[in-house]
Amino acid sequence: MGQIKVDKRGTINDLHDVRLLIEMSDRCNHRCIMCKHSWSDKMHADIPTSFMDPGLFIKIINELKHSRIKFTSIDPLWAGESLMNPSFKEMISYMFIAIKRFGICRGTVINTNGFFMDKETADIFLDHGRFVQEHANEGYYFRIYFSLDAATPETYAKVRNVPQRAMEKALANIDYFMKRRKEMGLIIPNAIFIFIVMEENKHEARAFMQHWKKYLDKLGVNFEILPTWPLDTKKDAIYFRQLIRPDINKAIKLHRDTCIRIGLWSKAVKLKALSRKKTRTDTSGIQPRRRPCAALWRTPNIQASGIVTPCCRDIELTLNLGDVNESSLDEIWFGEKIRALRRAHMTGDLSAYPECASCVEPEGEILEGEIETLII
Fold first, then answer.
1. CA 50 – CA 161 distance, rounded (Å)
2. CA pair distance 306, 321, nearest whole angstrom
């Protein structure tokens, strides 16, 4: 994380390593059992689900050309399937042009279930991948996360609440993308195959790993198998992700037990990690003071209708900072609402922000050695 400089009023003078999420769609064609889409027809509070308007997306991208914020990546994703947006191809192409011509960021991450990644979309991704690969020594990157969560059609249908044949179509689209990438002599975009560990699919974790390991070996590509977030990977990856849920200790144990069972972790790592986790809450049940959350400086999220929140876990938009239909992202990200939230995290008084005080996000806090760079 780059150094963050803040003046005595809490106003940020310069920001680096900022990762912007732009939600092209909060609709999804799947109803995954671990996602709000499975039990509600609305994703964000009482706001009807929608596709981001192309005009709003273009406004956001155009304003980023002159932003004070130094973006590491601009990721067209959040709580829905971005590729469902009817204008996705035009919108993502416009963003890629802005990256090439104006350098608005160096990285892009896309998350998709693969169902709508037709050949034309895959070719758009690969064309940008060629540019990124040619400029990789300048810090450019492009990663596509394929959300799969199963090794068989039966479990895929159970976990994602779709017909079994949906898996066949997603895998066919992924296969075209991977083989076409090889034909073009590319290794970028990097492909990450995701398996969120749950009770309903844990029995297929090994089969999932073996399937994609065999597939990637056959293609002759470099890859890694990871039990932790592949934030900086420069290879393809098979990624076993921990489920984020209110009962976080249960999710941590299930994830670690599964990773140990398939050989990704040792028992010593498990015991050490769980021991550290227990120190977060003392025997009285009182939550110790949390370190400031890095999201307040690093991850603006723009919801499909234009509302900005600093946190991807803020599905209900309770931390609403403003609307990019009415203000620029810079005006919002340097505004009083976010400054007040940052001051609360710095002082440790989260009484006005109960959603922050009760957050179960395991990777969201600023490291101890970085706190001194945050001066109020």
1. 21
2. 11
The pLDDT of residue 4 is: 37
- Biggest CA-to-CA distance, the chain: 60
Q: What is the pLDDT of residues 137-187, one digit of tens each?
A: 999 999 999 999 999 999 999 999 999 999 999 999 999 999 999 999 999
What band does 314 get if pLDDT is binned at 50, 70 and 90?
A: very high
How is residue 178 written in tokens?
């991977």
- Sign for the CA dihedral angle at 159, 164, 170, 172 comes to positive
Give the DSSP H or E segment for 331: helix 329-333
Dist. CA 245–CA 243, nearest whole Å: 6
Q: What phi and psi values does residue 75 have, to the nearest 5 degrees?
A: -115, 110
Count the neighbouring beta carbons within 10 Å of the beta carbon of residue 298: 20
Residue with tokens 């991948």: 129
Q: Which residue has the higher pLDDT, 293 or 60?
A: 60
How large is the C-alpha radius of gyration of the chain?
21
* Pairing state between β 12-22 and 5-6: antiparallel
Instruction: Specify the long-range contacts of residues 279-288, CB closer than 8 Å, at least 24 apart.
Output: 287/357
Q: How confident is the model at residue 245 (pLDDT cuts 50, 70, 90)?
A: confident
Q: What is the mean pLDDT of the chain?
A: 87
> What is the pTM (predicted TM-score) of this model?
0.88
